[in-house]
Design goal:
Low-confidence stretches: none
Shape: elongated
Distance between the termini: 65 Å
Order of helices and strands: HEHHEEH
Number of helices: 4
CATH architecture: Orthogonal Bundle
Largest sheet: 3 strands, antiparallel
Radius of gyration: 19 Å
Strand content: 5-15%
Number of domains: 1
Structural class: mainly alpha
């Protein structure tokens, strides 16, 4: 995507939001967007960890100009993808 097209896209999204719909393109509401700091608080981690996830493209994020935002649904999906389910198999020791 060219820089011009990216700027045009951001301005269209902001114009749509300012028009009073309260909904950004793609059905994302502005209230569902978190800053890096808010995402790190929600995960209980450092902001550095969240920034590393973004840099490594391990979590979906949204760029609004030079600002980075994370949709709450994407954060929930990231957490769900890391979930490890319990198994019924137990490791038994050979000593009684």
């Amino acid at each position: 995507m060219s820089i011009h097209r990216g700027i045009l896209l951001v301005s269209m999204v902001l114009r749509e939001y300012r028009a009073g719909t309260g909904i950004l393109s793609g059905g994302i509401t502005a209230m569902s967007l978190l800053t890096v700091e808010q995402a790190s608080e929600r995960l209980g981690t450092s902001t550095r960890f969240v920034r590393r996830l973004i840099a490594e493209r391990r979590i979906t994020f949204i760029k609004v100009g030079r600002h980075v935002r994370i949709d709450t649904a994407d954060l929930d999906a990231f957490v769900a993808a890391g979930r490890v389910e319990l198994t019924d198999q137990r490791v038994h020791s050979s000593t009684p």
